[in-house]
Design a protein that fits this description.
Helix content: 40-55%
CATH class of the largest domain: Alpha Beta
CATH architecture of the largest domain: 3-Layer(aba) Sandwich
Oligomer: single chain
Structural class: alpha/beta
Shape: flat
Strand order of the largest sheet: 1-12-10-11
Number of strands: 12
Order of helices and strands: EHEHEHEHEHEHEHEHEHEHEEH
Number of domains: 3
Radius of gyration: 20 Å
CATH superfamily of the largest domain: 4-hydroxy-3-methylbut-2-enyl diphosphate reductase, catalytic domain
Largest sheet: 4 strands, parallel
Number of helices: 11
Distance between the termini: 9 Å
Strand content: 15-25%
């Protein structure tokens, strides 16, 4: 069986930057998982002493706190500053962008609509910078919302551009003033496009990444549109031999939080099947 990697896959700029920051701040703690990859979080703790604080109470007891790539809420950030905690900001610049937009547009009187997952830490953080914020996951959800005359629309960085466009089009015909800010990360878009193209060529598709990672789950969803035999694994140990029976070409892609050492392990394991 042959293997083919997607044209674009794996670590994005923001994740590479965050890993570099964490490795340079030994024995610090991250407030929430630095990235959505359990294996890489374990490596940082084992090799660099970077611990994980799941709550604000845990983080406040540390001398140095690394803000995760997804960012934290404005209130939590202000609380840590008031405590005189050393804050090391690893928030992805592509996440800082919608935070700033939401804060500015909210002050100018716009109702804020965020296209995203309401429980995702990035979305929670972005929403905290506005006052009149609505979070929607689809066009259908917008129909249930009471819309104001002035709306500013932003997106979670890992969402599909096509769905974002549909929401923008829906709003454009229903409000007096609409400001649309494309806050979808370019790396996310390129990874999704590459996964879509590869899924049309192969018999089986393996997506490598954290199962709590939004962008990784998006890659799986995209791959499944053309390749029914698409599977999400966190590492080589989750591969199952029966998946590959009678397959001739296996495609591999990976989420933005997936390090090369995990991807290489998956490749090597498949080659032995």
């Amino acid at each position: 069986m042959r293997l083919k990697l997607a044209e674009k896959y794996g670590f994005c700029f923001g994740v590479k930057r965050a890993i570099h920051i964490a490795e340079g701040n030994r024995n610090a703690t991250t407030f929430g998982p630095l990235i959505h990859n359990v294996k890489e979080i374990e490596r940082l703790q084992r090799d660099f002493g970077v611990s994980l604080s799941e709550t604000l109470q845990q983080a406040q007891d540390s001398q140095s706190v690394i803000v995760r790539t997804h960012g934290i809420t404005k209130g939590d950030l202000e609380f840590l500053r008031e405590r005189k905690t050393k804050i090391i900001d690893a928030t992805c610049p592509f996440v800082t962008k919608p935070q700033n937009i939401v804060e500015k547009m909210s002050k100018e009187g716009y109702q804020i609509i965020i296209f995203g997952d309401k429980d995702h830490p990035e979305v929670k953080g972005v929403a905290s910078y506005g006052e009149n914020v609505v979070i929607v996951a689809s066009v259908e959800e917008i129909t249930k919302c009471k819309l104001r005359k002035k709306i500013a629309l932003v997106s979670q960085t890992t969402k599909q551009p096509e769905q974002f466009g549909k929401i923008a089009a829906f709003l454009a015909s229903r409000v007096n003033e609409l400001r649309v800010f494309n806050t979808i990360c370019n790396a996310t878009f390129e990874n999704q496009r590459a996964a879509l193209e590869l899924s049309q060529e192969v018999d089986i598709m393996i997506i490598v990444g954290g199962k709590n990672s939004s962008n990784t789950k998006q890659l799986l969803k995209i791959a499944q549109t053309h390749c029914n035999d698409s599977y999400l694994v966190e590492d080589k140990n989750e591969l199952q031999k029966q998946w590959f029976r009678d397959k001739k070409l296996c495609g591999i892609t990976a989420g933005a939080s997936t390090p090369d050492w995990i991807i290489e392990g998956v490749k090597a394991e498949i080659e032995q099947i």
